[in-house]
Amino acid sequence: MKFQNYLTGLLALALSLGLSACNKPAAQQSAGSTADTTHTTASAVTEQVSLQAIGMHCDNCVQSIQGTVAKLDGVESVNADFQSGVVNVSFNPQQINAQQISAEIESLGFKVPGVVGSPEAEAALAEHAAAQATDQGEAADRSAEDAGEADHSEPSADGESAG
User: How far, rounded to the nearest angstrom, does the alpha carbon of residue 148 sit from its chain's CA centroid?
Assistant: First the structure.
């Protein structure tokens, strides 16, 4: 019962505080509105960009990019994903731009051909995928050759294959 009375009193206090805030004189309300507008304006200057980064292949790559980009003046948040190769960055364009962020990522050894979905990024992804397929095909060919050489090795003195 005491707890119920406590909750009722707490609710009444919250309501009275909320109502008294609504009854502020117009000058106080507009001062509050200005603060809200300033906050909105501050968040309105935030831009977001999704950059395609080629060469990320593990969590260490992600941590390297996120740690470096997060330290740049004007960067509010950064999130990288090595599986998609996408780096999402929220930043203040009055302090930094997407090209500067790209340059910083490239300084770490990654290729940043552009914004996700741009013709440059799509072409670079296709080129990267083709290069990976070629590399994997060559590796498979080498493995097959190595396996073939093992099958055709000379028998040893005891008559068994030396491979």
Answer: 44
